[in-house]
Design brief:
287 residues, Seminal Fluid Protein  PDC-109 (Domain B), Jelly Rolls, 5-stranded antiparallel β-sheet, rod-shaped
Length: 287
């Protein structure tokens, strides 16, 4: 009778035990790997098939086999809702002061009080122009003086004056009384804006060039002394006996100097014995 196979007859021979993968985490170039070691590298998973050290799984297919490749980047998801605003942070500490900048260039001088002046002087307007001011010595009334007059001759009838030499500047001789000298110290008379020689006279000379002027000297000079006139004070005398003849000759203020000296008048006439008859003569200072 024939024999049929049973389940016992179908059992095969027991096979060789398998080898499982060993997970070693992220690939480390300094670690020695043996077959079946599995690692992660750059998003993919590899299994070692040949012992190695420092062989990059991504570029060493002889020693590593790819188990799972890194997936493609997914599409960007929708933007999330804006979060609530956070609490304000604490105020930061104050920074250190910066270095001082370099000094700028000096600006042009502005209008204002002029430099100079002496004790007791006051500031006066010299014209209608804005900022036109100067230091001046106040008058006796307490306000600023407008003019000062220094008389060398103030004779109510006539003062005939002559000189003792021809065509030279001389201190004249007076037929009525001696020479007149007045002290002049511009440091005590403020800062005049202009000055002039004034003279009221008649002149009996009928010919020649006859001149009058002012002179400054360290001491009063006697009649007949040769002197030097203040250049801008020299004025021509009219040869006329008709009264009144007048002179108003502008004098450069700077020529009056800045030191104390004696002021006199002087003559330069063609004929030494013929001079003018003077009623008034002096120096006017205007402020």
């Amino acid at each position: 009778m024939p024999r049929f196979a049973t389940t016992d007859d179908l059992a095969g021979i027991t096979g060789t035990p398998g080898t499982s993968f060993v997970w070693r985490g992220t690939w480390d170039p300094g670690t020695a790997y043996v077959p079946y070691d599995s690692v992660a590298h750059q998003g993919s998973c590899y299994v070692c098939v040949q012992a190695n050290t420092n062989n990059n799984p991504a570029s060493s297919p002889v020693r590593w086999n790819l188990l799972a490749a890194k997936g493609d980047q997914g599409q960007q998801g929708p933007q999330g809702q804006q979060g609530i605003q956070g609490e304000p942070g604490q105020q930061g500490i104050q920074g250190q002061p910066g270095q001082q900048g370099i000094q700028g260039n000096t600006g042009p001088p502005g209008p204002g009080v002029p430099a100079g002046g002496t004790t007791g002087q006051v500031l006066q307007k010299t014209s209608g122009t804005d900022y036109a001011t100067a230091w001046a010595t106040p008058g006796s009334s307490g306000g600023g003086a407008k003019a000062s007059y220094l008389y060398l001759v103030q004779h109510f009838t006539t003062l005939e004056v002559t000189t003792s030499a021809n065509l030279l500047w001389k201190i004249p001789a007076a037929t009525t009384y001696g020479q007149v000298s007045v002290p002049l110290d511009m440091t005590k008379l403020g800062t005049p804006t202009s000055a002039e020689l004034f003279c009221v006279y008649t002149n009996t000379a009928t010919t020649g060039t006859n001149q009058i002027g002012l002179t400054l000297n360290a001491a009063p000079q006697v009649a007949g002394t040769t002197v030097t006139p203040i250049a801008s004070s020299v004025a021509l005398l009219a040869n006329s006996a008709t009264y009144p003849q007048t002179i108003r000759k502008t004098i450069v203020v700077a020529e009056l100097g800045s030191t104390a000296r004696w002021l006199q008048f002087c003559l330069n006439v063609t004929t030494g014995t013929v001079g003018p008859n003077i009623f008034a003569l002096g120096l006017a200072l205007y402020y």
